[in-house]
Design goal:
With 377 residues, this protein is an alpha/beta fold. It has 2 domains: 134 residues, Aspartate Aminotransferase, domain 1, CATH 3.90.1150.10; 219 residues, Aspartate Aminotransferase, domain 2 (3-Layer(aba) Sandwich). The strands form 3 sheets. It has a 7-stranded mixed sheet with strand order 2-8-7-6-5-3-4, sandwiched between helices. A 3-stranded antiparallel sheet has the order 9-12-11. Strands 1-10 form a two-stranded parallel ribbon. Helix 7 links the parallel strand 5 and strand 6. The protein binds pyridoxal-5'-phosphate. Pyridoxal-5'-phosphate (PLP) binds next to helix 4.
Length: 377
């Protein structure tokens, strides 16, 4: 093969699919691996897309996104306290592209991005592709919250950004006011961006403290958001990025060069999505979350208290197996699949997703319980 960009050789493949694929080879395996809503997209959103398509919205949209959607997003964000206007909004191909545009757009080779771990693997992939470096901020010893001391210990003169994902994938933990106060105290006024990855924010038990609402940090925050999770629209691939106007003007060039624009008729349907109430789905996740936590506690497993997203992250340390071996054996011996914590920089844990029917959840947790008994025997 003719040599490629050498940075590609250091990129890591997400192991989530590896375990999902392994589970698919086992007949009747219950999948607790999936990180996407099991609901269908609400009908009014689908109808809006079909109507827009029928009306001929099949041409390029403006690079930045349609004025209608950007206005609707700016109003939606302003309404929840993140004051912004439509010029600050960039419509992207999911939060993935929002994150890519934000991180690739700000990172120079050799610079560092702080990623609280356990965390979503994509941040590291983008940083690596940019020639920058991920610096993990290990939260396992601080109850999965951020402390000033721990953050200060990883800040260097090369730090360019910190990523905050709350509610968190894979723990479901919501960062406390104290965690965010620590971040603010350490980075405010420094040439460091705060990337708020808020994709699970609408799927939470209560208010989520959020630095994107803080007027004193407006020049430093880049907000990444998605239609995927709250509205069960993962396959639509629409999200957005919001930041200071001068920064967004430059980041737009990257986005325009990469994807030109998000499909026009999808953007029209996303205006309808913003008028849709996601709380009925959020309530179902909350009920499942409560059920999973109750079952795991009864099995004697410990885990950080999840308050959102659709994941729980129990410790399996006491079984003396690394998380990859644990998950592989669980698939083969108990026919239930979860994702090893090592995929998120959280060895000693597994990620259980409850994006499945109550029936499957019960079956999967019964099998997990039986598997644990074989390990204890
Ligand atoms: C924390 C986090 N951020 C961003 C994304 C990307 O979401 P999407 O590109 O579907 O909007 C995901 C998807 O799983 C995620 O878990």
């Amino acid at each position: 093969m003719i040599p490629l960009n050498s940075k590609l050789s250091t990129l890591k493949r997400s192991a989530i699919r590896v375990y999902t694929n392994l589970a698919r080879t086992v007949d009747d395996c219950v999948m607790l691996t999936i990180g996407e809503p099991d609901f269908d997209t609400p009908q009014p959103i689908k109808d809006a897309a079909a109507a827009a398509l029928a009306a001929g919205q099949t041409h390029y949209a403006p690079n930045q996104g349609t004025v209608e959607l950007r206005r609707a997003i700016a109003a939606f964000e302003t309404n929840r306290g993140c004051l912004c206007n439509e010029n600050q909004v960039l419509v992207t191909v999911g939060a993935c592209e929002a994150l890519y545009t934000a991180l690739y757009g700000i990172l120079n080779p050799g610079e560092e991005v702080i990623v609280p771990t356990p965390g979503f693997l994509l941040y590291d992939i983008i940083a690596t592709a940019s020639g920058a470096k991920t610096v993990p901020l290990d939260l396992a010893a601080t109850d999965f919250q951020i402390t000033k001391e721990a953050l200060e210990a990883v800040i260097t003169d090369k730090t360019k950004a910190i990523v905050l994902n709350s509610p968190n994938n894979p723990t479901g933990v919501v960062y406390s006011e104290a965690s965010l106060a620590a971040v603010k105290e350490v980075v405010r006024g420094k040439p460091i961006f705060i990337i708020c990855d808020n994709v699970y924010q609408q799927l939470s038990d209560g208010p989520v403290p959020d630095l994107s609402l803080d007027p004193e940090l407006r020049d430093q925050v880049l907000l990444c958001q998605s239609f995927s999770k709250p509205y069960a629209m993962t396959g639509w691939r629409v999200g957005y990025l919001i930041g200071p106007e001068d920064v967004m003007e430059r980041l737009l060039l990257l986005h325009a060069g990469m994807v030109t624009a998000v499909p026009t008729f999808l953007q029209t349907a996303c205006v309808t999505a913003l008028e849709t109430d996601p709380s009925p789905m959020a309530k179902v996740y909350a009920q499942r979350r409560e059920y999973v936590c109750r079952r795991l506690r009864a099995m004697g497993l410990r885990f950080p208290e999840p308050r959102g997203a659709f994941y729980v992250f129990p410790s399996i340390e006491k079984y003396g197996l690394d998380s990859a071996t644990f998950c592989t054996r669980m698939i083969r011996e108990a026919k239930v699949a979860a994702v090893p914590g090592s995929c998120f920089g959280g060895e000693g844990h597994i990620r259980i997703s409850y994006c499945c029917s109550q029936e499957n959840l019960e079956k999967g947790l019964d099998r997990l319980e039986a598997f644990l008994k074989t390990l204890e025997a």
